[in-house]
Write a structure and sequence with these properties.
heterodimer; A: alpha+beta; four-stranded antiparallel sheet; two-stranded antiparallel sheet; 16 helices; B: mainly alpha; three-stranded antiparallel sheet; about 10% strand
Chain lengths: ~425, ~130
């Protein structure tokens, strides 16, 4: 029934790691208490099962999303955003940098091993000419490849050391994941060192190539995919942490959470829903709870409606005069300074456009450019206004710039305004 | 051009507060006393408490949220924990009420009755009209 009481299922380990990361900002003792409680809970609920992946998933499902637990843990105290500064070591750049360095390490190992292996093959042919036995030839090649691997390890040491340090300090990976990341360069060197020599020992010179290609496939396939998965996981954790650490998210902070980036990442968080009217009425009389909700926050960003603007025009009408570009730049600069213009830009021509056309349950791909003249979206913007009236006025101002600075454009330029549904 | 609003609407629909949100709202503040009540007169371990609370589907929706709550109760000095051997598997952490916990439960019981009656009375007024 309970053959392996001390091994934690990887899914459980990941869940607990996520939970721990999400509860950053809660006192360590309490945090550990909650994680331990949940761990024991999961273990106890798995006791009567065969602990298959399905069993574990079902148990985790019962436990509920880690975000919900973390949210409950931070209820009744200042929102995590109030005092949690997301540590530098759990930001999304870290896994990306680790991935880059790992890739560099693998590349260096590969290059060094491949050059040294060529040298050693040369020495093998010379020993053959002197009429020595197969065994000694194998021996000489063996030395070359292994020493090449060791050399490669030394050559990649700077990158590897940085990887070790970064992986060690971040909380975005579990212990097992960290071990994998640190061991990857070592495993690569071993694969490149051993497999070609092994191939040589078994089938001669062809074996070297087979071994080398096997090593490349193993490292590129296995290592690459593993690296990709681990980095994606870390980025997802970092994002969850970021949205959790914001004062605008989570039930403990009674913000309507209308700012989509935070909102979207909290989709699984029942807290996002709960937060809606906590501010209006809180039955439990948790006055402290209510007070802490008045956190400094970019108010406008949260409550103001957002709009999307498009500029559509016929393709091939020529490029606008420089005066329009200049006027546009000034206009957008002003709007951005006012906090109206959030993001936007022009789009490249439709010769680069990719369309996936879905019809009758089938997807087909139709790429640009289009044979006939067609109205295309040339630019877009996401803007934030107090009211719809302001938005319309702003869009008119924007359209008027085109009329003023591009008077000789005979085909229609359509500046569209749409409110974002959120 | 595919309308960008539709997929977005799909995402956002799921975020609109549903019926569950009033419930989770009402739970706040009441749930911890339900836990205290479950512990009245007998020690229990986490899974056992969680299963009972989720059984109704009303009091708690995800078992995991019990643990922050228990941690809070322990910090308030209302519950205390002890390890006990289990017939199946490793030892378990049992939670039990302290004297302060019993007092808090009694106080809540009184407050709850007054509160519930007041809410019922307030709701009855609109109930008669509709």
């Amino acid at each position: 029934m309970n053959q392996e009481p001390h091994t934690v299922h990887p899914l459980v380990a990941r869940y607990l790691q996520d939970l721990d990361v999400l509860m950053r900002g809660i006192e360590p003792v309490e945090r550990a208490e909650v994680v331990e409680g949940v761990r024991e809970h999961i273990e106890a609920s798995l006791d009567s099962t065969a602990r298959t992946d399905a069993d574990v998933r079902a148990a985790l499902d019962e436990v509920g999303p880690a975000t919900a637990v973390a949210e409950e843990a931070s209820a009744g105290r200042p929102g995590p955003g109030a005092f949690v500064r997301r540590p530098v070591t759990s930001r999304a750049w870290l896994p990306a940098v680790v991935a880059g360095l790992e890739a560099l390490t693998l590349l260096v190992v590969f290059l060094v091993v491949s050059t040294t292996t060529v040298v050693s093959t040369g020495s093998v042919s010379s020993t053959t000419a002197s009429g020595r036995t197969i065994t000694t030839q194998t021996q000489s090649s063996f030395d070359g490849s292994i020493s090449g691997a060791i050399e490669a390890l030394f050559a990649s040491l700077p990158f590897w050391l940085v990887v070790i340090v970064l992986v060690a300090i971040t909380s975005l990976w579990t212990g097992r994941e960290k071990a994998l990341l640190i061991a990857l360069p070592l495993a690569t060197a071993v694969a490149f060192g051993v497999l070609p020599t092994l191939g040589y020992a078994l089938v001669g010179i062809t074996g070297v190539y087979v071994g080398a290609w096997t090593a490349i496939a193993l490292v590129g396939g296995g290592g690459g995919v593993g690296l990709w998965v681990l980095v994606r996981r870390a980025v997802a954790r970092s994002v969850a942490l970021a949205s959790w650490g914001r004062p605008t998210s989570g039930a403990s902070v009674a913000v309507t959470g209308q700012h989509p980036p935070a909102h979207r990442s909290l989709r699984s968080l029942r807290g996002a829903e709960e937060s809606r009217d906590v501010r209006v009425e809180d039955l439990a009389g948790r006055s402290t709870y209510l007070q802490t909700q008045q956190l400094p926050q970019p108010k406008g960003l949260i409550t103001m409606p957002r709009f999307m603007g498009f500029v559509r025009m016929e393709e091939g009408v020529g490029s606008p005069p420089q005066a329009l570009y200049d006027a546009m730049e000034t206009h957008i600069g002003e709007q951005a300074a006012k906090g109206v213009f959030l993001d936007g830009g022009g789009l490249f021509g439709t010769e680069d456009a990719v369309n996936f056309v879905v019809r009758n349950g089938e997807t087909s791909r139709v790429d640009g450019p289009y044979a006939e003249a067609k109205e295309v979206v040339g630019g877009w913007a996401i803007m934030q206004y107090d009211t719809l009236e302001d938005a319309i006025a702003g869009q008119q101002e924007f359209a008027d710039l085109h009329a003023k600075y591009w008077p000789d454009c005979s085909s229609a330029v359509v500046a569209t305004l749409r409110q974002i549904a959120e | 051009m595919v309308s960008p609003a539709d997929p977005a609407r799909g995402i956002f629909c799921r975020m609109v507060p549903g019926e569950g949100s009033e419930l989770s709202h009402l739970r706040r503040g009441a749930l911890e006393y339900c836990v205290l009540s479950l512990l009245f007169g007998r020690e229990r371990y986490g899974l056992d408490i969680a299963r009972e609370l989720t059984a109704s589907g009303v009091l708690m929706s995800s078992e995991g949220t019990l643990y922050p709550l228990l941690a809070r109760l322990r910090r308030s000095g209302w519950v205390t924990t002890s390890w006990q051997e289990s017939t199946e598997g490793p030892p378990r952490r049992y939670y039990s009420l302290t004297a302060a916990g019993v007092a808090a439960l009694e106080e809540f019981r009184r407050a709850w009755k007054v509160f519930r009656d007041a809410v019922d009375a307030a709701l009855a007024r609109s109930g008669e009209l509709s």
